[in-house]
Amino acid sequence: MKKLDLKGFSLGETKIEHGLVLAPMAGATDYAFREVCRACGAELTVSEMISAKALCYEQKCKKKNTELSRTAPLAAVREEELPMSVQLFGGEPSFMAEAAGLIESGDYFGNKSTAKPTAIDINMGCPVHKVVNNGEGSALMKDPSLAARIVRAVCDRVNLPVTVKMRLGWDRESINAPELAKMVEQSGAAMICVHGRTRAQMYEGKADYSIIAEVKKAVKIPVVGNGDIYTAEDALRMYEITDCDGIAIGRGALGNPWIFGEIRALTSGEIYAYPSLREKLNTALGQAYRMAEEKGEYIASREARKHVSWYIKGVSGAAAARHRINSAETLEDVKSIVEEIVAECKN
Ligand SMILES: Cc1cc2nc3c(=O)[nH]c(=O)nc-3n(C[C@H](O)[C@H](O)[C@H](O)COP(=O)(O)O)c2cc1C
Predict the structure, then answer these.
(1) Residue 68's pLDDT is what?
(2) What is the pLDDT of residue 36?
(3) Cα gap 239→312, rounded to integer Å
(4) How distant is the alpha carbon of residue 233 from its chain centre?
(5) 47: exposed, middle or buried (C-beta count within 10 Å: 0-12, 13-18, 19+)?
(6) 207: left (phi over 0), alpha (psi -120 to 50) or beta
(7) Atom 30 (ligand 1): residue with closest C-alpha?
(8) Binding-site residues, ligand 1, Cβ < 6 A
(9) Which residues of the chain have pLDDT under 50?
(10) Which residue among 42, 102, 234, 340 has the highest number of C-beta atoms inside a 10 angstrom radius?
């Protein structure tokens, strides 16, 4: 296969060598999964999306029980996690700027960070109804001047680099990613990640890389291509069509964090050796235990259900175990089911 010549990019002083990014995924890219992806070769990770308004409102609970803090823990950045961005969503420049300022300062209720993030990322891609109905996420693509004002307000408030994650546009009839990209660049954005779908598509259909190529031509700041990268060949295709500076992988990393290693190997022309099923499931188990340290066993064993299901996707003979994992109540349950899967499956 051809060598992949990803250029990478810088965010402030931080070099993201090949531009390999773990795309933000609410409910999936928590601390434990980000750690696994980093170990497999992801060079920049992003927090789950965080409501700017919720973070600001939590300040009103100050001095009360820190257990009340639900949003702040999502924004935690540990020194060992860098490079990592914190992603904010919101539709009001003032709240977005205030939340970004809190994150940069670390001076906020419930803060568990030991480091500042590498960048603040602004969400202009979330398609979920309750988010867009508030004028947040991908709704910002319908109001480019507001989107640009948000970027300007956040850039004016913080010294950290500010990045933007967008879609192609609201729908096929209103594709405006190249124009919006220029506007956010002029407003101070340091990098743009483009998911090659419209909001109307949600996660359906195929990502269109040709418009990501237009975004790349429209701006001077780095552009990261995103959408439907499940193999190193897909990464190569994204790069060849778009000339992007980096690649963000979302669903393709769920249960397969080794995709980052596979793509990295392609940048040096090597053949990547995937781990065995046992090694993969040991990773899944380690991730579940790490999750428990962060969130407690009750939540971790339930969240581990979906992660283990992703790790065993496509494994023949694991159908019954896939069913059983959904009843795991404790880490011990997760562990014994994972061991059964390893014993049952020969591959
Ligand atoms: C479960 C899930 C949660 C997501 N959460 C976020 C999020 O919090 N912020 C964001 O910008 N995008 C979010 N996305 C979109 C992904 O970052 C990515 O743009 C999209 O899945 C397309 O990339 P992929 O084909 O590599 O998955 C989410 C996607 C999924 C599947």
Answers:
(1) 61
(2) 98
(3) 29
(4) 21
(5) buried
(6) beta
(7) 25
(8) 23-28, 48-49, 87, 123, 125-126, 165, 195, 226-229, 249-252
(9) none
(10) 42
